[in-house]
Amino acid sequence: MVILFWFAVALQAQPLSQHDRDFALSQLHASRRTFLDALAGLTTAHWKFKPAPERWSIAECAEHVALSEDFMFERVQKLLKGPASPERRSEVKNDELMKGWLDRSQKAQAGAESQPKGRWATPAKLAAYFRQRRERTLEYVRTTQDALRSHFDGSGAGALDAYQWLVSIAGHTERHVLQINEVKAAPGYPK
Questions:
Q1: In the predicted structure, residue 185 carries a pLDDT above the cut 60
Q2: Can you tell me the distance from the alpha carbon of 141 to that of 152, in angstroms, rounded to the nearest whole number?
Q3: Do 31 and 174 contact (CB within 8 A), yes or no?
Q4: pLDDT, averaged across the chain
């Protein structure tokens, strides 16, 4: 019994594998690049254009991404303050995570904490804020020794570990780059 206890304690304390760390960094770097590229060269007319009254402008999509970076990162930190549950590892599926974020056929409603309210007047100001927040996330992934794979949110098919929440920051960003590209392709988008 004592041996099993110490084995469980050792599992809880395991930091990220190099493979997981490299994958998360790769996804976060790539999504940062595509997001910032999507904002590059936008005029005020591009920034504020709405394809329909009920759809978001690029400014609103971008603000949501920036706010969600904070919300999702804070969620990881909150999970780590809770008890570790390494025995739940088998509940978590990695294969579908990024694919699910990129499926725009399923619409989602943003929570109150990430609803756009016009906080940034220009793409440059939003991009500066986003760069700073993403760099914080990247630095955390580069250096953390936290047992991200042992702290969970949700249960069953919806369970995510703290590591998956970090990877989801990248997936969420990519999802909204697709939405920004939809706005750019909409009829009436300024030339």
A1: yes
A2: 17
A3: yes
A4: 88
Question: How many distinct helices (H) and strands (E) make up the chain?
Answer: 7, 2
H-helix or E-strand spanning residue 160: strand 160-161
Q: Is 161 helix (H, G, I), strand (E, B) or coil?
A: strand
Contact 143, 159 (CB under 8 A): no
In this prediction, residues 133-141 reach a mean pLDDT of 98
Tokens of 141: 């992934």
Q: What is the pLDDT of residue 88?
A: 81
CA distance 99 to 149: 20
β-bridge mates for residue 160, sequence order? 153
Asked whether the beta carbons of 39 and 128 are under 8 A apart, the reply is no
Query: Which amino acid, 59?
Result: A
Residues 80 and 146 sit within 8 Å (Cβ to Cβ)? yes
